Amino acid sequence: MIRVELPAHLRTLAGVDGDVEVEVVGPVTQRTILDAVEAKYPALSGTMRDHITRARRPFLRFFACEQDLSHESPDAPLPDAVARGAEPFMVVGAIAGG
Amino acid sequence: MSGVRVLVGTRKGAFILTADGRRDKWDVAGPHFGGWEMYHLKGSPADPNRLYASQSSGWFGQTMQRSTDGGKTWETVGNKFAYDGATGTHQWYDGTPHPWEFKRVWHLEPSLTDPDTVYAGVEDAALFRSTDGGQSWSELPGLRTHGTGSKWQPGAGGLCLHTILLDPSQRDRMFIAISAAGAFRSDDGAKSWKPINKGLYSKYLPEPTAEVGHCVHRIAQHRARPNTLFMQKHWDVMRTDDAGDNWTKISGNLPTDFGFVIDVHAHEPETIYVVPIKSDSEHYPPDGKLRVYRSKTGGNEWEALTNGLPQEDCYVNVLRDAMAIDSLDSCGVYFGTTGGQVYASADAGNTWKAIVHDLPPVLSVEVQTTP
Q1: Is the pLDDT of residue A21 over 60?
Q2: Is the pLDDT at B20 greater than 70, yes or no?
Q3: CATH node for B78-337
Q4: Is the minimum CB–CB distance between A54 and chain B shorter than 8 Å?
Q5: Which residues on neighbouring strands pair with residue A60, listed in sequence order?
C-alpha cells in the first residue's frame, strides 16, 4: 500500500485522522497516486489538482524521500521507497499567511 | 413560536446563529469548516433544512457543501465547475483580453420550488445550475456568451457574479449582477440575457452610460413587486420599476452613496436599507459612525439608524452579501461586518444589537424564518 500524507484541511475534508493508504496498479506516479486518492476519497477531487487542467494547485507541493517532486512530470515514476510504502508521498500546503 | 436561523459566512469558517421569534437570545454554532473561506450559505425556500454552502481556499480551491438538517451536519458535494464550450476572453484590469478562469463560487441561490435545484454565481463571471442537490453543475452559457462578455472586466474583488434574483411571479425570469459588468435579465429561464443598465452612470468608464461595464454591487427585490429592483452600485443607489429597463438615482440625502449592501423590508416594498461607506478607497463608514440608512419612500429620503450601533471609532466594512431580512411580523434586519460583528434588529432597524462581536471578517449573512 502507498502512504499519502495530506494537509490537515484535506484530512478533515476526507474524514480521516492520519495518513491515508491507497493501492495503485501499474506505475507509481504522482498522477496514479492522486487518481487513487480521489477515487477513494471523492471529497478531495479538485482540491489538489485543478478539475479541468489537472495541474497541481499552485499553493501545494509534492514531496517524497526528502525531494521536492512538484515540478516533475506527473507521469514520472516515483522513488521505489514510495512505491513500496516505506516512505510517504506528501501533499504539503505552502506556508502562507492569511 | 417561529424562530430565525442566521447563516454567516466568514473568511475562516461558517457560523449558524439561532433564536426564537423574540430574537433577543442567540445560540452560536460553529465554526463549521474552520479555516476555509465561506463566501455564501443559503437555505432552500422549498425545504428550509436543505442548506448549500460555498467553501473555498487559496490552497485547495473550491469545494461545495450541503446539509439536510439545517446545518447540524454537512456532506461534500460536487465541485467541478467547467465552462460550457470555448471560454473566450474578458477584459483584464489593463484592458487586455484575458481568458475566462474559474476561481470560486460567490453566491448560491436555491430554487424557490425544488430543494435539489440551486444556482451558483461564480468568478470568473458565469451562472451554473445543479438539479441534483449540488452533486453536479452545468453552466447556463447564454449569459457568458450573449455578446458583451468580451467587454466585461473585473472589479477589485474579481469578475464575480454575486447576485441572483429568481422572480417569484414569473418562473422563467431571473436577474443577475456582475462586478464589473452590470445587471442582466433573462425572461426565458436563463437561455438568453439582456443587459439592463440604462440609466446607470459610471464615471470610471470611458463611456459613462455604456451598455455594460458598470460595477453593480448588489440588487434587491421585494416579492410583492417583482418589477421594482433596488441597486447599490459602486457609487449611486438606484431603482427601477420596469424590471431593469430604466434606472433612476435615489441616493437623495445619503451622506455618501458608495456602499455594498442593499435590501428591502419584508412587508413594506418601499422600505429599503443601505449601509453607506465613505468611498471606493476608504472602505469604512463616514466619520467612524456605523449607520444603516433606511428609506420608507423607496429612496431619496433617508434616515440614519444608529441606536445600538457604534457611533465612534468604527472603521469596518459591510460586504455585498452581508445583509439579510427575515419575514417575521416585526421585520428583522441583519448585517455582518469585516470586523466580525453580526448586528440584528428585531424592529425593522429602529434598534440594533450585536449577536456576536468577534467572528472572522464576515463575507455573507442570510436568514431563514423557521417554524
Answers
A1: yes
A2: yes
A3: 2.130.10.10
A4: no
A5: A93
